[in-house]
Amino acid sequence: MNILSIPETHSTNDLLREKIRNEKLPEGTALSTDFQTKGKGQVGNTWESEAGKNLLFSLVLYPEHIEIEKQFIISQIVSLAIKTTLELYTSDICIKWPNDIYWKDKKIAGILIENSLQKGKIQFSIIGIGLNVNQTEFISDAPNPVSLAQITGGEYNREEILLQITSEIKKLYTEMDTDKIHTSYLTSLYRNHGWHLYRAENETFEAQIAAIKADGMLELKLKDESVRGFYFKEVEFVITTKGTKED
Fold first, then answer.
1. What is the pLDDT of residues 27-84, one digit of tens each?
2. CA torsion 141→146→147→149, rounded to 10°?
3. Do 182 and 201 lie in a common domain?
4. CATH at 222
5. Burial level of 40, CB count in 10 A (0-12/13-18/19+)?
6. Are residues 174 and 201 in the same domain?
7. 242 φψ region: left (φ > 0), alpha (ψ -120 to 50), beta (else)
8. 141 is in which domain, residue-wise?
9. Residue 74 sits in the same domain as residue 128
10. Domain end position, chosen among 150, 165, 187
11. What is the 3-state secondary structure (H, E, C) of 161-206?
């Protein structure tokens, strides 16, 4: 595994993309940093991370063999790889659709996947991962962050966790057992059992997860037996954590 490390950068996703424009890096190359000045979350959100405390890295894949309409498999692979790694250190890890990593009702890791499409194929995928490892205080307005150190009271080697995650991604990506990946993803989902509150179009309703489609659509079954499908940011998970709620 080719791992590049730098003390600080604006965004590992952006920097890795710049490097790919200059040279085709080996598949699986990861770029890690101690601090991001403009770390990115989903849909323009920022990612809070104290310098030198957490795991911040991006990884490149060239999944030209994956059909564009089935690109969600990449998100599933990465989510499962992080979950499997974290389960070496603690329990109660799950995946909040589409690809946030949770410990109970709190967010421990986020994933940002940016795909470059060309001629009907995925030219490359840049996978950005922020994992809270040793940070013990969070000052942003994020409603429910948590770190591995807060969960267990321990302190961890970030480089070791990086190697574990990238190794697990490589394993799942190389094997590409789509049925097994999909089944594992479903069983790993946050709220994969029972009725829970969701919000869409200013309406709050109870539903249970019915299915996840190959393109990433979340299907929710409502109390009246109807099924509604949602893509990312079309529905909120109503989560109460210290009086807050998060989408």
1. 999 999 999 887 655 545 566 788 899 999 999 999 999 999 999 999 999 999 999 9
2. 120
3. no
4. 2.30.30
5. buried
6. no
7. left
8. 3-187
9. yes
10. 187
11. HHHHHHHHHHHHHHHCCHHHHHHHHHHCECCCCCCEEEEECCEEEE
